Amino acid sequence: MARLTPEKARWPALKVDTWSDTRDTLHMWSQIVGKLKMAGTPLINHWWNVTFTVSARGLTTGAIPVDGRILDIEFDFAAHELVLRTSDGRRATLALRPRTVADFYAELVEVLGRLGITVEIEASPNEVDPAIPFAEDTVHQSYDADAVGVYWQQLVQANRVFQLWRAGFAGKSSPVHLFWGSLDLACTRFSGRSAPTHPGGAPNCANWVMEEAYSRECASAGFWPGGTEGMFYAYSYPAPDGYSSRPAGPDGAHWDAALGEFVLPYEVVRESDDPDATLLRFLDTTYAAAADLADWDRALLDVNPHRLDRRLHADDTATI
Fold first, then answer.
1. Cα dihedral sign, 279-284-287-293
2. Residue 94 near residue 108 (C-beta atoms within 8 A)
């Protein structure tokens, strides 16, 4: 079988314990920006409206409607700036550097004011404990630019493979996006059936938030900057009987009972001969475990993500 990983793809190493303070500070900054997006956009099922996407510079909110204009905000991890742009041609930046969350929040409010933008948010984080109000958070104040740059490149690679995996599903599927509540890049497939009410329980997060997120039966996968170098995960809600005992590939993937999900350490992917194929195997086997046990209509839902390539190769006169 031909190697799936592109020649120029680089899966960089980054020990989590070397940048965990920076990660936690970045997490709080992302919650501030994420709440601006949440306040400015209408609710889309499963909170898809609040997420960030991976960009050629870092992470971006995409378009946020504000007072008849569009605002977009990007964490530029190449120049290490937070960049704000509006549809009336205005632009502003904040430096991404060692600084407290309180300082970052205060300057962002001031910059928004200069752009003529007022957005009210609940100014404290969710899904973490303790939840220190942004204006009072002087605990988180680290920023290692080199580490953030490597983390971004991890996201670039994971995002690319998740997009290919998403292309193999014709049913309802989320975009590949980053949830700032838990700072994880994720993609979720849905069976088309409703799900039982989620029990909630996330720290400093109302139960109805999780009820909205898990209102439909799903199989989800993602990447989170935890573990040794990062962790890929997969889970199903609701988890069908026998799900945790189903085999998941590749070697190194396993069921984590404490987390209630399958996990695959990032370093297993990075060190493999074909990282893309290794990650796709994890995504495919964990999805198959959920879909088969819960009797999803896979003949209808699953598609060949390479079907366009095959059609073009079959017709050497085709153009797009």
1. negative
2. yes
Under 8 Å between Cβ of 125 and 132? yes
Cα-based distances in Å from 277 to 31, 175, 229, 265, 296: 33, 21, 19, 15, 24
The CA distance from 234 to 251, in Å, is 15
Q: In which region does residue 227 sit, left (phi positive, over 0), alpha (psi from -120 to 50) or beta (all else)? A: left
Q: Which of 177, 181, 94 is nearest to 131 (CA)?
A: 181
Q: How far is it, in rounded angstroms, from Cα 283 to Cα 166?
A: 10
Q: What does the pLDDT look like over 240-263, one tens digit per residue? A: 999 999 999 999 999 999 999 999
Q: Measured in Å, how far apart are the chain's first and last C-alpha atoms?
A: 27
Half-sphere exposure of 58 (CA within 13 A, CB side): 21
Residue with tokens 């209509």: 297
Q: pTM higher than 0.90 for the full model?
A: yes
C-alpha distances (whole Å) from 135 to each of 70, 124, 205 are: 26, 8, 19
8 A C-beta contact, residue 126 and residue 202: yes
The per-residue pLDDT for range 12-54, each reduced to its tens digit, is 999 999 999 999 999 999 999 999 999 999 999 999 999 999 9
Return the HEC string of 23-80. HHHHHHHHHHHHHHHHHHCCCCHHHHHHCEEECCCEEECCCEEECCEEEEEEEECCCC
